[in-house]
């Protein structure tokens, strides 16, 4: 299979296990789940799916010669995401605005109820081993460390939002290596360049005002639809399109629903005003502190640049927004 990816280019995928997983219903559903949520009203033309990101994590791990088990873990790591990705953390009471970890909390049970375990068994892989992220430190690490998941979604965001071009992208890959189960840049300068890019992405997209508006408005829209039984909780783990189409049928007969949709769809102005607001909302904020080679040692960027340590500390605090709807 020839697979074309906007970050890693054209790749031939021949491993039958990977090919079968990519065609599984568990992975196929992610083609209908947007990576950013419902970001099109704020940034038209930037839609990209959880499937694209999942394959990207696999391709990154394969590029740096991680084990096949780690590649598989990377490929399936987002299977438990609900519709509109992290928006669901705001819709369901089991989610968290500050941590956005709903999909991680349900991951193991969710995957076990898909067709993925049968595929892994067919290829003599232990599902419990694959589902234990402790086995795969290149794939997953806690902030502010780098991991394959974090590297892919940041570079993918940067490419899609035109924050970097091919030259910068290839420079990151050339200066990055996988050593001792960690991602390591070959110099403090390259580590700093990546960390500053991530800082920019966090400020503009991951924890910026447009994201706060998206989370708040999608939350109101979906919770109203749930309350009125236009959709069920089970629908939240189908696809974005399925949920939107089910709710759309009620727009003409439900005036409040129409108002909530107009807010979500960017038709009504929403501002951040701490002195006069309708709701306040928290958004997860993040920063990275990469490992790098310096003076013959592998060190954290913050060990070399103390100012960066302060940036990481400050940026790891959730951002709070006070939203005022003009209608």
Walk me through the topology.
Layout: E1 2-5, E2 9-12, H1 16-22, H2 25-28, H3 50-63, H4 68-76, H5 88-91, H6 102-112, H7 116-122, H8 127-131, H9 148-160, H10 166-174, E3 176-179, E4 182-185, H11 188-206, H12 209-227, H13 240-248, H14 255-264, E5 270-272, E6 279-283, E7 291-294, E8 297-300, H15 301-304, H16 306-315, E9 319-325
Parallel strand pairs: 4-7
Antiparallel strand pairs: 1-2, 3-4, 5-9, 6-9, 7-8
Provide an overview of this structure.
This protein has helices spanning 16-22, 25-28, 50-63, 68-76, 88-91, 102-112, 116-122, 127-131, 148-160, 166-174, 188-206, 209-227, 240-248, 255-264, 301-304, 306-315, and strands spanning 2-5, 9-12, 176-179, 182-185, 270-272, 279-283, 291-294, 297-300, 319-325. The chain has 327 residues and is α+β, with helices and mostly antiparallel strands. The protein has a domain at 2-192: Hypothetical protein af1432, CATH 1.10.3210. A four-stranded mixed beta sheet has the order 3-4-7-8. A three-stranded antiparallel beta sheet has the order 5-9-6, with helices on one face. Strands 1-2 form a two-stranded antiparallel sheet. The radius of gyration is 20 Å and the shape is globular. The mean pLDDT is 97.
